[in-house]
Amino acid sequence: MDEPLLEVRDLFTQFQRVDDVVYAVNGMNFSVAPGEVLGIVGESGSGKSVSVLSFLGLLRDNVKLKSGTAKFRGTDLLRLGRRQLEDIRGRDIGVVFQDPMTSLNPVRRVGDQIMEGMITHHYASKKVALQRTIDLLGEVGIPEPQMRYRNYPFEFSGGMRQRVMIAMAIACEPQLLIADEPTTALDVTVQMQILALLQTLREKRNMSIIMITHDFGVATNFCDRIIVMYAGMVMESAPLAEFLNNSVHPYTIGLKSSIIEVGNKNKELVPIPGMAPVLTKPLNHCPYVSRCSVAQDRCEQELPELLHVGNEHYVACHRIEEVGIHAK
Ligand SMILES: Nc1ncnc2c1ncn2[C@@H]1O[C@H](COP(=O)(O)OP(=O)(O)OP(=O)(O)O)[C@@H](O)[C@H]1O
Ligand code: SF4
Ligand SMILES: [Mg+2]
User: Fold this and answer.
1) 262 pairs with which residues across the strands?
2) Which long-range contacts (CB under 8 A, 24 or more apart) does 58-62 make?
3) Cα angle for residues 173, 168, 185 (degrees, 5° grid)
């Protein structure tokens, strides 16, 4: 495998609330190779967003603890100051969030907002940045870009605003794009267009992408590797083919059984019983234990480690040996 572009090791993030602490990320480990698309899936509250916001320096100020390393091209992002991180964010790492209206300034023209990043990061002069803004709007599929760059965000549809966000995120040609639920608020056809656009951009620029989504369909159609998160931990991680054919973690299997497949009326849908745990205590046992149909005593006493089971496939479960897979 290529040297990773981003390598996150032992990431822990905790928040202080008025009366308690939230243990949001509990020892995340993952890496992204150049040109690779990594999907992070998991239920709401599993720590998908916090795990990336932690190394982007975008968390709110009630952080109690943030530890571990997040090496981007060898530089640990968790050790950088605000200014240094701002330099990297927007230039080397582009970010697209779910709701463009919270990220776009409603009273500024979209063209000015796209240009701003290029000028701030000394990527281009004002004149070059203007031409590039028009080119980028065309590249992300905005019709008549030479007219539309003067528009305000409210003059664009939701899908077009999402495209503007992508144009902003890729303006300085980042090596890594982080897209946090970039298509969740959009209808299915626009969602497919945006994913196709990201796919094209990735091929054209050999850009790596981290795609955060709770949509299994999006992850399995778009990503090279998939990480399943639960309670701020990686439960399973595997390259796509291995993930589709050989997933073994009880939570992944539960997720797969509970999703609707288009055109498969015969599939029996089995929802996962119970709810995700409230993370107000340090984890000292498997967080999935109260919902797992194959749990044993050990699962209530020890936290499972993420172990390599071959083919770049990792699983955190005490019972992997019993389902016929052996840690390597
Ligand atoms: N600033 C904060 N203060 C306290 N708790 C927080 C804070 N930010 C996030 N959390 C908690 O951390 C946990 C992980 O949140 P996160 O936003 O990463 O979930 P997610 O997997 O991205 O969910 P979703 O799919 O809904 O976006 C949740 O329990 C959330 O309530
Ligand atoms: S460690 Fe135990 S409780 Fe957790 S997923 Fe595996 S079998 Fe289930
Ligand atoms: Mg989120």
Assistant:
1) none
2) 58/89, 58/95, 59/13, 60/15, 62/15, 62/16, 62/17
3) 125
Does ligand 2 have an atom closer than 6 angstroms to the CB of 295?
Answer: yes
Could you report the per-residue pLDDT of 115-168, keeping only the tens digit for each?
999 999 999 999 999 999 999 999 888 999 999 999 999 999 988 998 999 999
Distance CA 322, CA 328 (A): 15
Q: Are 5 and 32 in contact (CB under 8 A)?
A: yes
328 CB burial (10 A radius; 0-12, 13-18, 19+): exposed
For the question of whether the overall pTM of this predicted structure is more than 0.90, the answer is yes
CA 24–ligand 1 middle distance (angstroms): 7
Edge-first strand listing for the sheet containing 176-180: 93-96, 176-180, 208-212, 37-41, 225-230, 233-239, 314-315, 307-308
**13, 51 contact by CB (below 8 A):** yes
- Alpha-carbon gap, residue 294 to 112, rounded angstroms: 56
Q: Is 289 in the pocket of ligand 2 (CB under 6 A)?
A: yes
Q: Which amino acid makes up residue 205?
A: R
Number of C-beta neighbours around residue 60 at 10 A:
7
Distance CA 103, CA 56 (A): 15
Angle, helix 158-170 to helix 126-139, in steps of 10 degrees: 130
12, 25 Cβ separation under 8 angstroms: yes
Give me ligand 2 centre to Cα 133, in Å.
50
Could you tell me the fold of the domain covering 6-92+174-323? Rossmann fold (3.40.50)
Q: Are 41 and 214 in contact (CB under 8 A)?
A: yes
Identify which of 192, 199, 130, 139 has the alpha carbon closest to the alpha carbon of residue 167: 139
Query: What is the per-residue pLDDT across 196-230, written as a single tens digit (0 to 9) for each?
Result: 888 988 898 899 999 999 888 889 989 999 999 99
DSSP state letter for 273 = P
Mutate to test the pocket of ligand 2, among 228, 248, 285, 286 (most ligand atoms within 8 A of CB): 286
**Which atom of ligand 1 is found nearest the CA of 279?**
29
φ, ψ of residue 85 in degrees (nearest 5): -70, -40
